[in-house]
Specification:
This protein is of the alpha/beta class. It is built from 24 helices and 16 strands.
Length: 586
């Protein structure tokens, strides 16, 4: 187990202990240990090997023994026994937004509720609202959360399924009978939420490939198995479908199974208009549907199929029939952004608010990743739940970051941290810090973190007012959505984009896996209005730098190039643009 996995287990133990009503000091000990391990800058294994585990603050002998057991065996008997002692329905109830361990325990103790189904019935019978600390609004929110949970039960975040798919693809690539393989479906199209994982392989021996695929370790179950197709269940309840075709069929099968359905319909119609037939088996010289190899037009790649149909190649991310055909008939599509074009992220958090690493540790890690800059933009004071900064703490942080940059320059290291804040947009559209404080910072991101239920006109006016502040460079996660958890708040997004265009304010593509906000469907309009994009990690720990790759995937889906995205710029150009924004609107 690595540090994050150990911290995750300890955090889960804390939750389970709270569910059982254990001593709060014991619960807090596990929570604190989990948080401390998350912030370590070296592997636990090394600390254990060097006999330094007892030097970690607040981790006593009993916890040390459990950590060693986790690291050495990959499991913890105490954790397994604790899980077995708690009805699984109580743990499932924690997935409902707004229900923490204390409330779940209260529901169990006072109403005898032991499952999501029993909780739903209790809400419908109006028994939950009578409990102390709940009320009508909480009861309504619980019912809505249960409905949302069922709606999204078979949906998964893109970021969660990508590593599962990549691991399986690695196995397929190593198989001697596999010629080519790829992801397909909504995963290949980089949809932010996917239903399942589609894989495609070509082979002269599909039975062998299917047999070996369904024998891979880590599969929870085999749903279906045939000679050319198999469906299996992966961890987290993700279904994976593998299809195996001949190598001659692979390009057309890849195009067909990538989709989207709407994109495929247009492609098939273009083939018909040319006296051809396009299906999953190939592109054929025929006036009727066929899979006759003698009629197949040789197309070794997807690019060749597009060319035969009079089109320039459309990257898979853009195949949604939302403007890509107009581009593909006019000329080669512009080179879309690559994640390696990105030089840093401007929206990130540190231990000054709710992040896990200090600015100094962040700088060291981002230097190791080869980045050029990194914004330290912790929460403002109104985000008290995230340890938001009061003005004196913000000023102390500014001094710390500037000193780090002085040290980096002295050492000849070409990397800089940027001072900043993610300042709350208050209900009236004013900002959580005064202008003179904001003016001290390199970069200011304005975001909504509260008051999500305002009517659309009020929410729109609120955000537009904040955008008009000359110190605001970036509008953060513009709709406040949390994928599979919370819908976007009501706001006129085009009016907000227009306001950003008027004020020269950039819009964030928040690359946190549950946000991916602004939605990819709106970037064509933003681009048409001249609004620049910033792909931000909204990082709370070092591993979140990987969100740059996810954000780039969604930017590609939106048809964005490196010229559309400001954090592809070198530091000098970026800092100049940040200052010009302030000067423009004064």
């Amino acid at each position: 187990m690595n540090n994050d996995q150990v911290a995750d287990v300890l955090g889960k133990i804390a939750v389970l202990l709270e569910l059982k009503g254990e001593n709060p000091f014991k619960t807090r000990a596990y929570s604190n240990a989990a948080r401390q391990i998350e912030t370590l800058n070296e592997p636990l294994q090394r600390i254990i090997d060097e006999g330094r585990l007892d030097a970690l603050r607040g981790i006593g002998d009993a916890l040390q023994a459990k950590i060693v057991e986790l690291i050495s065996t990959g499991r913890l008997v105490y954790f397994e026994e604790l899980k077995a002692s708690i009805p699984p329905g109580l743990v499932e109830m924690l997935d409902i937004p707004g229900l923490g361990p204390k409330k779940v325990k209260a529901l169990s103790d006072q109403l005898g509720v032991l499952s999501v189904e029993e909780l739903e019935k209790a809400c419908q019978e109006n028994r939950v609202s009578t409990l102390k600390g709940f009320g009508e609004k909480t009861q309504t929110n619980i019912l809505e959360g249960i409905t949302r949970r069922r709606t999204y039960a078979s949906r998964h975040l893109l970021y969660e399924v990508q590593p599962l798919a990549e691991g399986l693809l690695d196995q397929l690539r190593q198989h001697p009978a596999v010629v080519r393989c790829s992801t397909a479906g909504s995963l290949r199209r980089c949809r932010e939420v996917v239903g399942d994982v589609d894989l495609l392989a070509s082979s002269n021996n599909p039975v062998e490939v299917i047999t070996d695929f369904t024998s891979l370790p880590g599969l929870l179950s085999i749903i279906a198995k045939g000679e050319t197709k198999a469906s299996v269940l992966l961890e987290g309840g993700v279904q994976c479908d593998l299809r195996v075709v001949s190598d001659a069929e692979f390009p057309s099968a890849l195009m067909y199974f990538t989709g989207s359905k709407e994109h495929n319909i247009v492609m098939r119609q273009r083939a018909i208009e040319r006296g051809l037939r396009l299906n999953e088996y190939g592109l054929f010289r025929s006036s009727v549907e066929t899979r006759d190899p003698a009629l197949r037009i040789p197309c070794p790649t997807e690019e060749a199929i597009f060319q035969e149909l009079g089109l320039y190649f459309v990257p898979p991310e853009m195949r949604e029939d939302l403007g890509e055909f107009q581009l593909a008939t006019a000329g080669p599509l512009p080179r879309l952004v690559e994640w390696t074009d990105l030089k840093g992220s401007l929206h990130n958090h540190s231990t000054w608010s709710d992040g896990r690493q200090s600015p100094a540790d962040i700088a060291k890690s981002m230097i190791d990743l080869g980045l050029a800059y990194w914004g330290v933009t912790d929460h403002s004071k109104s985000s008290f739940q995230a340890n938001g900064l009061m003005i004196p703490r913000l000023q102390a942080q500014i001094r710390e970051v500037r000193q780090i940059n002085v040290d980096l320059e002295r050492d000849g290291i070409d990397f800089r941290l940027l001072t900043g804040t993610e300042v709350d947009i208050l209900k009236d559209g004013s900002l959580d810090f005064p202008d003179d404080v904001l003016a001290e910072l390199d970069v200011v991101i304005a975001s909504v973190h509260q008051g999500f239920t305002l009517p659309e006109p009020e929410m729109t006016a609120r955000i537009i007012k904040a955008i008009g502040n000359p110190n605001v460079h970036i509008l953060g996660h513009p709709t406040g959505r949390l994928l599979l958890e919370r819908e976007a708040y009501a706001v006129d997004q085009r009016a907000v984009i227009d306001a950003c265009a008027k004020n020269g304010t950039w819009i964030e593509l928040n690359a946190s896996p549950s946000r991916l906000d602004l939605d990819w469907r709106l970037w064509a309009y933003a681009k048409s209005r001249g609004v620049k994009c910033v792909i931000n990690c909204d990082a709370h720990k070092l591993e979140h730098a990987a969100f740059l790759r996810l954000g780039a995937g969604l930017a590609r889906k939106a048809g964005l190039t490196r010229e559309d995205i400001v954090n592809t710029w070198p530091l000098d150009k970026l800092k100049k643009a940040l200052q010009e924004k302030r000067n423009r609107t004064r």
